[in-house]
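FORM 12-B: Structure-to-Sequence Request
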């Protein structure tokens, strides 16, 4: 028996050994061959960067580098089927026998498809447009995208300061550019307005993981060329969503990090079907506990796109949606707790949450008519609805238009209440343009316009009261509606006066009708209507000589007040519209390994709206016009490739941001009859406008597949209000991040990428955002000034780890 078992075991070991030898020989055969080559444009012989080179059935491939070169290793001896694809070019296929001596040269022929770039051309600046801009492509966004919101991904671009309520870059986030906040930054997606029509803000929390469906984004600083939606009063962000892919693909991104942060994203696309159709889809889920106590975010989104791509026509339907639930951390942190309890959250009610969903529908057409004309038309519809819930301790019945409750002989005027404040809105319309380019290329003219309508309901519900009295569940204690029509027409022209010298002009007329009626949340009746007609001209020139482009421009923008300016102010005292006169001048250079941009700007405001401490008749703070204010600065940014392994980049902005004169109002509780004390200031700094903002990026490639990036950010001191009071400030801060990226091409994957991001590696304690208010109380000298500052602290050292698998 022992003998038979031994013989049996010997046979099994022999089989195992033979199998192992066969496996080893197979691995050896795979490992001993490699294929190198270069991919070029068939007509110009220019290298094609980022072309996909794939060997069928082997599961191995590569992406061409900056010179169009590629190398695929660990290939088997014998014949392999090679496939090379690149957007806008015919797919190349060839059988190659390995070993192959020398480098393979592959030339791709262009496909006669209409470019999707024209979808956004009406809102974009080009190299000869006389304005200040920066374009970030999909590859650069992907390096930074580990689930944080769009503002955080743009943190290292010029003059940008970002902030996060929950402290970790997920949830409620925002950005300022040149000191101007989100309500003054115009945002479009495929040329379609994104800003809320009433508040003018953009709520990135409603668009989680949107960066995963963005092909590129252009940031224009100053008035720029923006034509659709809210006026640009500091900058504009123009997004183009994913464009078609030649080949079918799939991608899975997973990640986790500090504060129990998780991200799951799945993307897939058909590639071109029958050489004409393509469908792309994405599904995302992001959750985090947040840095601030209980400031969790639960975010879900999807993106679906289908298109027809012909030689002269493109029709595309985009549907995307985001749904968010976040625990509120809006209150901020009192200054007294900065050193002892940075993660403290004022709210304690377990469902003090914000809940909102926003669905976007875009039907886009772009077409070519003959050799000189192109046209673009987009129909859009956005449906948004949601609420935030609040627990209100010992609140007055009168705030909810409720009678006092009499129990026995006692009159009760207060009780604990839980309320929900709702938004339910529809935004729809169209934007369109037609482009003419003359045969000699000297004239490039765009005529366009758009018409959009916003219809929004605002209402509040009482969902619980400790002492209910005469109430029903979901009683509406306020209810109002607003309808806003926004129409514009424009004409843009670029004329080449002589080789290298271009003249630019842009004339826009924008008309607005805003009607609102009903009861506001402070129980005031707010019935009103306002009409505006704005003329916004822009002029400039650019001069190209060698590798440099010099430019200068003058632009005007007019901006209507926001919803709160209408509803909080007495209807008879609505603030005046704001006006901006913007001068931009600079130079762009791209020569070899060194690129740089340098520009000067002057932004002169008339009737800029600011908070002054003035209150309305129910005690709410309102904004007032200040006659004269300005922003002026110099911005520098550049990059230098020291060698194939080292690249240095960075930017810095120096600015002055001043208000000529304004009056501050401070509540005075030291007297029997409440009043406000007035203080007049001259030549003060505009709030949240640091005089210095800079960043630097050092990139090191020790090997082809490994990238190390050191990212630094400096933001100078900021004031919390417009008084330049040193007791009401945000301290300057300097943060440093480390990003490590490793890319591999294992069998059956197009690529496998691992990204590790260590944020704030030196554990800097900083606050990029906050607010302040002051008031007088009785004191030894008659009255005493009390100032309360609140801050939004950001996380110390934390990390995000992501794994991306592409098929």
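FORM 12-B RESPONSE
SEQUENCE OUT:
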């Amino acid at each position: 028996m022992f003998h038979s078992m031994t013989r049996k075991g010997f046979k099994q070991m022999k089989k195992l050994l033979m199998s192992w030898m066969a496996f080893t020989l197979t691995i050896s055969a795979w490992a001993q061959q490699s294929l190198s080559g270069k991919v070029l444009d068939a007509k110009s012989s220019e290298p094609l960067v980022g072309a996909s080179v794939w060997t069928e059935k082997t599961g191995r491939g590569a992406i061409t580098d900056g010179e169009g070169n590629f190398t695929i290793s660990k290939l088997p001896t014998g014949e392999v089927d090679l496939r090379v694809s690149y957007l806008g070019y015919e797919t190349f296929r060839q059988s190659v026998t390995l070993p192959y001596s020398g480098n393979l040269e592959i030339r791709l022929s262009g496909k006669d498809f209409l470019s999707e770039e024209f979808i956004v051309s009406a809102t974009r600046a080009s190299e000869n447009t006389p304005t200040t801009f920066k374009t970030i492509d999909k590859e650069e966004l992907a390096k930074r995208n580990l689930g944080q919101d769009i503002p955080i991904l743009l943190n290292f671009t010029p003059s940008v300061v970002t902030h996060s309520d929950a402290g970790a870059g997920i949830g409620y986030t925002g950005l300022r550019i040149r000191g101007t906040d989100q309500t003054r930054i115009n945002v479009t997606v495929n040329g379609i307005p994104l800003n809320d029509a009433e508040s003018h803000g953009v709520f990135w929390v409603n668009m989680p993981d949107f960066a995963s469906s963005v092909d590129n984004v252009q940031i224009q600083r100053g008035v720029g060329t923006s034509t659709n939606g809210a006026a640009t009063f500091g900058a504009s962000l123009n997004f183009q969503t994913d464009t078609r892919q030649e080949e079918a693909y799939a991608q899975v991104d997973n990640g986790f990090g500090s504060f129990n942060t998780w991200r799951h994203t799945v993307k897939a696309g058909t590639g071109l079907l029958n050489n004409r159709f393509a469908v792309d889809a994405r599904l995302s889920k992001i959750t985090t506990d947040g840095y601030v106590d209980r400031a969790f975010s639960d975010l879900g989104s999807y993106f679906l796109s289908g298109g027809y791509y012909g030689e002269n026509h493109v029709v595309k339907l985009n549907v995307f949606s985001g749904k968010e639930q976040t625990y509120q951390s809006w209150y901020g942190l009192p200054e007294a707790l900065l050193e002892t309890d940075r993660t403290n959250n004022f709210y304690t009610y377990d469902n003090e949450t914000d809940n909102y969903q926003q669905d976007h529908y875009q039907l886009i057409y772009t077409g070519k008519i003959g050799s000189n004309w192109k046209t673009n038309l987009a129909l859009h519809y956005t449906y948004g609805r949601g609420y935030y819930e609040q627990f209100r301790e010992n609140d007055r019945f009168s705030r909810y238009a409720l009678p006092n409750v009499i129990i026995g002989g006692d009159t009760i005027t207060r009780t604990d209440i839980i309320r929900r404040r709702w938004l339910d809105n529809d935004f729809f319309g169209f934007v369109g343009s037609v482009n003419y380019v003359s045969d000699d290329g000297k004239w490039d003219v765009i005529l366009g316009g758009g018409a959009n309508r916003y219809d929004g309901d605002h209402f509040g519900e009482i969902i619980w009261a400790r002492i209910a009295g005469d109430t029903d569940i979901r009683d509406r204690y306020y209810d109002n509606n607003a309808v806003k029509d926004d129409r514009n027409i424009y004409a843009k022209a670029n004329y080449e006066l002589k080789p290298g010298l271009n003249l630019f002009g842009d004339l826009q007329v924008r008309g607005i009708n805003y009607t609102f009626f009903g009861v506001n949340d402070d129980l005031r009746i707010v019935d009103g209507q306002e009409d505006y007609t704005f003329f916004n001209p822009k002029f400039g020139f650019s001069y190209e000589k060698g590798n440099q482009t010099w430019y200068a421009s003058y632009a005007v923008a007019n901006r209507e007040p926001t919803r709160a300016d209408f509803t909080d102010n007495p209807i008879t005292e609505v603030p005046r519209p704001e006006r901006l006169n913007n001068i931009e001048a600079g130079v762009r250079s791209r020569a070899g390994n060194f690129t740089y941009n340098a520009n000067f700007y002057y932004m002169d405001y008339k009737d800029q709206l600011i908070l002054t401490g003035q209150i309305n008749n129910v005690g709410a703070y309102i904004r007032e016009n200040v006659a004269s204010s300005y922003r002026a600065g110099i911005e520098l940014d550049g990059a230098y490739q020291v060698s194939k392994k080292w690249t240095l980049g960075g930017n810095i902005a120096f600015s002055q941001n001043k208000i000529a004169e304004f009056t501050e109002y401070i509540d005075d509780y030291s007297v029997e009859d409440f009043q406000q004390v007035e203080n007049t200031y001259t030549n003060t700094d505009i709030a949240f406008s640091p005089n210095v903002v800079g960043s630097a990026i050092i990139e090191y490639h020790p090997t082809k597949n490994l990238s190390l990036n050191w990212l630094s950010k400096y933001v100078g001191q900021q004031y919390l209000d417009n008084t330049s009071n040193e007791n009401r400030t945000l301290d300057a801060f300097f943060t440093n991040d480390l990003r490590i990226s490793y890319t591999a091409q294992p069998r059956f994957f197009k690529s496998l990428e691992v990204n590790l991001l260590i944020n704030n590696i030196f554990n800097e304690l900083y606050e990029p955002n906050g607010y302040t208010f002051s008031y007088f109380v009785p004191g030894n000298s008659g009255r005493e000034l009390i100032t309360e500052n609140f801050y939004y602290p950001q996380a110390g050292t934390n990390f995000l780890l992501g794994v991306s698998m592409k098929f």
